[in-house]
Design goal:
The chain has about 500 residues and is of the alpha/beta class. It is built from 19 helices and 21 strands.
């Protein structure tokens, strides 16, 4: 293929989408109301539609009064019935695929429905938009003169009698449109390998021979791949192997703990970093500006958004038109895969209302609040980055949990941190981390006041590869599996500490 010509054609095609994005940016609430009416109208003859009389729902107020807010457990029976072949339960078109969640803190698997509409009008559409926004912001980009290295999770699909299930990345790879397949590496055969170590080796062997111009994947696992690549070619830098690489599209976990490592690895490149916010339940937001940590909420993917202020009950739910800046919200979605007012478990906050831009503030279940400190992942990520920068070290992975109060002892937080190179003065790093957490979280600061409620954090330096060892032992090696960052109980930390000896 003549890649320069392909680059020109692809760039022209993708830029045509920008005016549609500008339309929902200009009329966001109108577009969201239209999405809601389309979803309700589409599903009015489903079991869900008859139960809540979708035919007579003509505005958001009626919708919010009729349809209950749910979590997975409330719809699990309907999803299981759908997987066994019963159609038209929550969505009118047959559901062929189910994205199996990796379960970061809960061993119970979740099977998220993926409809044809969700695959085409949400996930694949978002993939094109990710490229469109990058190209629009970088007119001289030559992304399509080479290939993008995609690193998904476990690509194995399992077939039931009536449906298929696996990681979302497996479902997407197995159904990739031709345009996406032509411009990606590794090949479909390698991408569909299920054994992680063998797959990493095959990706390195195949992709190191390609002109890779972009990367796409979860930061933690992409870093593992890049380090294995450099180890396999010890006399070369990434500039030697992929001289034309220009952008890394990342998502899945916070990029903040990894950014310094990526900047060091690509010091010889003018690399752009673009964040995306996607999940098994849908694709929600994309970074739309160079050098930004804000994500544009994508409003025309067949997803209707609602928000509950973090810490309040479901009755406080509001539509997009009523959100405020700086407030942390629990995300609730209604989708073109048949999820109706579904609590996804993510917490976001708005950084801009025109257009609507967000940052991911953590998870509803991934926080520490043993003493009223309300520590969320966003605080932990930022504080670690600040402490690492101050002490000149790099953090590879981490987790934290409370040390509960005793009869005569105050509480605290215990951290397990894997460093690229451990700090020469661990006490200094601990102090920096503590000070950073105080500066970012007033509740934490109050509980740490004069050591009255909480003592300074306790830090355990993890041996090299500790978190990788845990993932391997749990059979969770792969791009969509994540380390539980914060927990209100000590089970995970205790297990890691036992492995660390």
């Amino acid at each position: 293929m003549a890649f320069p010509l392909f680059n020109s054609i692809a760039t022209w095609f993708l830029k045509k989408r920008i005016h549609q994005i500008e339309l929902f940016v200009k009329y966001p609430n109108e577009v969201q109301q239209e999405v809601l009416q389309d979803l309700v109208g589409m599903a009015k003859k489903t079991k869900m539609g008859y139960k809540h009389d979708f035919s007579s729902i003509n505005n958001y107020k009626v919708f919010s009064q009729r349809v209950p807010i749910v979590q997975y457990e409330a719809i699990a029976d309907d999803i299981n019935a759908s997987r066994l072949g019963e159609d038209n339960i929550f969505w009118p078109t047959p559901i062929k695929w189910y994205a199996k969640s990796s379960g970061t803190t809960n061993a119970k698997s979740k099977f998220i429905p993926v409809s044809v509409e969700a695959l085409e009008n949400c996930h694949y559409k978002a993939g094109k938009d990710m490229l469109s926004l990058y190209i629009n912001n970088n007119p001289e980009a030559q992304l399509f003169s080479g290939k993008t290295l995609r690193l998904g999770g476990s690509q194995e699909l399992f077939q039931d009698e009536k449906s298929a299930f696996g990681d979302l990345s497996a479902i997407m790879t197995d159904n990739l449109p031709l345009w996406a397949e032509l411009n990606c590496t590794p090949s479909l055969k390698v991408s569909l390998m299920s054994e992680w170590e063998a797959k990493m080796k095959a990706i390195i062997e195949e992709s190191s021979q390609e002109n890779v111009t972009g990367l796409l994947g979860v930061p933690s696992w992409m870093l593992v791949l890049l380090n294995k690549l450099l180890k396999a070619q010890p006399n070369k830098t990434l500039k030697d192997i992929w001289p034309n690489i220009e952008v890394y599209f990342h998502g899945g976990v916070s990029f903040r703990p990894y950014k310094n490592q990526y900047q060091a690895l690509f010091a010889q490149h003018q690399l752009q970093f673009y964040e995306i916010y996607n999940a098994s339940e849908g694709f929600f937001a994309i970074q739309d500006q160079n050098n930004s940590d804000e994500l544009l909420l994508m409003l025309d993917y067949g997803i209707f958004y609602e928000f509950i202020p973090f810490g309040e009950d479901d009755s406080a739910i509001i539509p997009l038109s009523e959100v405020l800046l700086g407030v942390r919200y629990v995300l609730v979605i209604t989708t073109n895969a048949g999820l109706w007012r579904y609590k996804i478990g993510d917490v976001v906050q708005f950084t801009s209302l025109s257009p609507y831009r967000i940052q991911i503030a953590g998870r509803t279940k991934h926080y520490i609040n043993a003493f009223g400190e309300e520590l969320v992942i966003e605080n932990a990520d930022r504080a670690l980055s600040m402490a690492a920068a101050a002490c000149g070290v790099e953090v590879i992975d981490y987790t934290a949990a409370p040390i509960f109060m005793g009869e005569k002892t105050q509480g605290s937080h215990e951290w397990v941190i894997e460093f690229k190179t451990p700090p020469s003065d661990l006490e200094q790093f601990t102090t920096r981390l503590d000070e950073s957490l105080k500066s970012l979280n007033s509740d934490y600061e109050a509980k740490r006041y004069k050591n009255m409620t909480m003592l300074p954090p306790k830090i355990n330096v993890a041996k090299e590869g500790l978190f990788y060892q845990w993932l391997a032992g749990e059979k969770k090696l792969g791009g969509q599996h994540k380390i539980p960052r914060l927990s209100n109980e000590r089970k995970f930390v205790e297990h890691l500490l036992s492995l660390n000896t």
